[in-house]
Design brief:
Blueprint: H1 2-10, H2 17-24, H3 28-41
């Protein structure tokens, strides 16, 4: 829930997975699973910045 609140507070610009990991203290491998669950549930979308 903390990740979701963090993303809602940031708004439409969003955050990178690296930034979320650093701010939350969650290791990237664990964070990946949490983000995937949010994406499957619907409230999260992803983009690839190039």
């Amino acid at each position: 829930m903390a990740i979701y609140r963090m993303l809602v507070n940031v708004g439409q610009d969003g955050l990178t997975a690296t930034t979320i990991s650093k701010r939350s203290g969650i290791v990237p491998s664990t964070l990946s699973g949490h983000l995937a669950a949010l994406k499957r549930a619907g409230p999260l979308s992803t983009t690839c910045a190039r």
